[in-house]
UniProtKB/TrEMBL annotation:
Residue span, N-acetyltransferase domain: 23-192
Keywords: Transferase
Protein name: GNAT family N-acetyltransferase
Extent of the signal sequence: none
Highest taxon above the source species: Bacteria
GO biological process: acetoin catabolic process
Length: 210
């Protein structure tokens, strides 16, 4: 399929000033912007910036950023699933993974993460995709937020629901390894039944082995 990337932008007023949320952005845009040193949830900031540039270069890759002036303070990524994970075992061309969403601590609670999702789905082409996200408690900043795993899980679930994601059961061992982990899925309005059926087979891999 052809991966269309229509750019959208929105402003958000926060206690720290005006934040611009925009994307999908080009790799050159990420390259020329500063990357905040507190974006450390997944890897060191310089490595994460390089990872985002790499995703933006992919045909299907989509990066939505939140920036204050020339500094990226948050982002969300969309791309094909990791080839080493079960979600890539059936290469469904219109299934993308929301791979990461991160906002620096000083902007949390200001609605930045919600705005990142809102701008993501301003693009009509997103209705052609089934998009999933896997939430693992070991990626959550429990110490920084002071939340326990259940409160954090509830917060993430409520955040994702604002963009149309719904909780879905699965027998994936990584997700079932802890009851706070979860799979959430957003099915675009133009996604056909064949895509849904094939994804369900990935969700319940062991059920279909017999």
């Amino acid at each position: 399929m052809q991966h269309i990337k229509n750019y959208h932008c929105a402003q958000l007023e926060t206690p720290q000033g005006t934040v611009f949320v925009e994307g999908p952005v080009l790799p050159e845009t990420i390259e020329k912007l500063d990357f905040h040193e507190d974006l450390t949830a997944f890897r060191p900031p310089e490595q994460q910036k390089k990872a985002l540039i790499g995703i933006a270069k992919l045909e299907e890759g989509r990066i939505i950023i939140a920036r204050n002036n020339n500094t990226i303070i948050g982002y969300v990524t969309y791309l094909y699933p990791d080839p080493l994970e079960r979600w890539a075992e059936d290469k469904i061309e219109n299934v993308l993974e929301l791979g990461a969403i991160e906002v620096i601590p000083s902007y949390r609670g200001a609605g930045v993460a919600k705005k990142l999702l809102e701008v993501s789905f301003m693009a009509d082409e997103m209705e052609d995709y089934l998009i999933f996200t896997t939430e693992y408690y070991w990626h959550w900043d429990l110490k920084g937020t002071g939340l326990n795993v259940w409160d954090y899980r509830r917060m993430m679930e409520n955040l994702m629901k604002t963009a149309g994601f719904e909780y879905c059961a699965t027998d994936d061992p990584e997700i079932t390894s802890h009851p706070a982990n979860c799979l959430m899925v957003r099915i675009g309005k133009r996604v056909d039944n064949d895509t849904i059926t094939r994804f369900d087979r990935l969700r319940f891999k062991y059920r279909y082995m017999y």
